[in-house]
Design brief:
This protein is an alpha/beta fold. It is built from 13 helices and twelve strands. The chain has a domain at about 5-195 and about 225-255 and about 305-325: Rossmann fold. The protein has helices at about 10-25, 65-75, 90-95, 95-120, 120-125, 160-180, 200-210, 230-240, 260-275, 280-285, 310-320, 325-340, 340-345, and strands at about 5, 30-35, 55-60, 80, 130-135, 180-185, 190, 215, 225-230, 250, 255-260, 295. The strands form three sheets. The protein has a seven-stranded parallel β-sheet, sandwiched between helices. Helix 1 (about 10-25) links the parallel strand 1 (about 5) and strand 2 (about 30-35). The longest helix is centred in the N-terminal third of the chain and has 24 residues, at about 95-120. The radius of gyration is 20 Å and the shape is globular.
Length: about 375
């Protein structure tokens, strides 16, 4: 049976991609390879892992022995590399982990793929593909106008984005030097189910639910292009099946919003779904609407002002466009977190209580 390997498949986008593959009933064995760090949880894969053609392997993409064993044992036709450290604030506090996983880990996956590919038959080589999932943050920051193109020069401004940029360069190099059939995608900000509550949207929903402060960095004017995770999953499958080897594709949601707009939208939807007067955590504090919890806090060091994706290439060449508007996607997302409190409780470790991360100590 042909096999798909999904690294980081217990994380946010990876687990949603597994659910997507299951919903499409793809005729492949699926192997999830994940280290299960703080942001990766088997709780996100409860139902998929009950299926016969689904295998979980605990492993680290930066471990050469484990990676070579993965390729040797399962002989994948497709590899989707989601595995990465991804939270900018954490990269500010501990950049070394990001370089190790995002750069060295990507190298091990690529080099393992190179050795695997060299042993394949001519027919199998025509089918094999390696897709590396990256971010628009590698491009740096935009002014008030303009969009990121696939040809935009890299200009990363955080340890996280710099480590992802390094991995992107390795992907290109392995295609140009070794002829490895690779694909590269750079996506905008994802949101949706199964996202660890350190990220903006789940953090705001859960803090609002508990009547806690909703911290908004700086003036709240930082702009992101928001992409519903299911749309991203569909784009990745489309690129894998139809994309041209060695090419990169930007994936965006056509939904530019400031952080303040995102938080206000969440508050408005919380007011509709669970009005403040029906939430005891708010009534006991005398809070009449969720927006009253919004508090502007010190900005993140090196905080990029604006990202915006030009996704015309993937539309023009592969026929993909996002199916969800921001309003429909964010409503589904808010409702999911409110209805899945058990999952939220299971994935939040005792060492992380949604506290502020990423401030450079001693820097004023």
């Amino acid at each position: 049976m042909k096999t798909i390997v999904v690294t980081g498949g217990a994380g946010f986008i990876g687990s949603n991609f597994i659910h997507y593959l299951v919903s499409k009933k793809v005729p492949y064995q699926i192997v999830v390879f994940d280290k299960l760090t703080y942001a990766g949880h088997l709780a996100s894969l409860d139902e998929p892992l009950k299926r016969k053609k689904m295998i979980f392997v605990k492993g680290d993409i930066a471990d050469k022995t484990q990676v070579l064993k993965l390729y040797g044992q399962y002989k994948p036709t497709y590899v989707f590399n989601f595995a990465a450290e991804s939270h900018v604030d954490r990269s500010i506090e501990g950049p070394g982990e990001f370089v190790h996983t995002n750069v060295f880990g990507a190298f091990q996956m690529l080099d393992g793929a190179r050795h695997h590919y060299s042993k394949l038959s001519a027919a199998a080589k025509k089918e094999f593909r390696f897709l590396h999932v990256s971010t628009d943050e590698v491009y740096g920051t935009l002014g008030k106008t303009g969009l990121f193109l696939e040809t935009t020069p890299y200009s990363p401004n955080s340890p996280y984005s710099a480590s992802k940029a390094g991995a992107d360069h390795l992907v290109r190099a392995y295609h140009e030097t070794y002829g490895l059939p690779v694909l590269l995608t750079n996506c905008s900000n994802n949101y949706g189910p199964y996202q660890f509550p350190e990220k903006l949207i789940p953090l705001m929903v859960l803090n609002a639910l508990e009547g806690k402060v909703l911290p908004v960095y700086g003036d709240g004017g930082n702009v992101r292009d928001w992409l519903y995770v299911e749309d991203h999953c569909e784009a990745l499958w489309t690129v894998m099946k139809k994309g041209k080897m060695g090419e990169k594709y930007n994936v965006g949601g056509n939904s530019e919003k400031t952080n303040k707009q995102v938080v206000n939208t969440i508050c408005e939807m919380m007011d509709e779904i669970l009005p403040a007067h029906k939430n005891p955590d708010l009534t006991q504090k005398g809070i009449k609407r969720y927006a009253d919890l919004i508090t502007f806090v010190k900005d993140r060091p090196g905080h990029d002002r604006r990202y915006a994706i030009d996704a015309s290439k993937i539309k023009r060449e592969l026929g993909w466009v996002p199916r969800h508007s921001f309003v429909s996607g964010i409503r589904t997302t808010v409702e999911w977190y409110l209805e899945n409190q058990e999952w939220c409780d299971r994935v939040q470790s005792g060492s992380y209580q949604r506290q502020r991360l990423g401030l450079v100590k001693g820097k004023k």
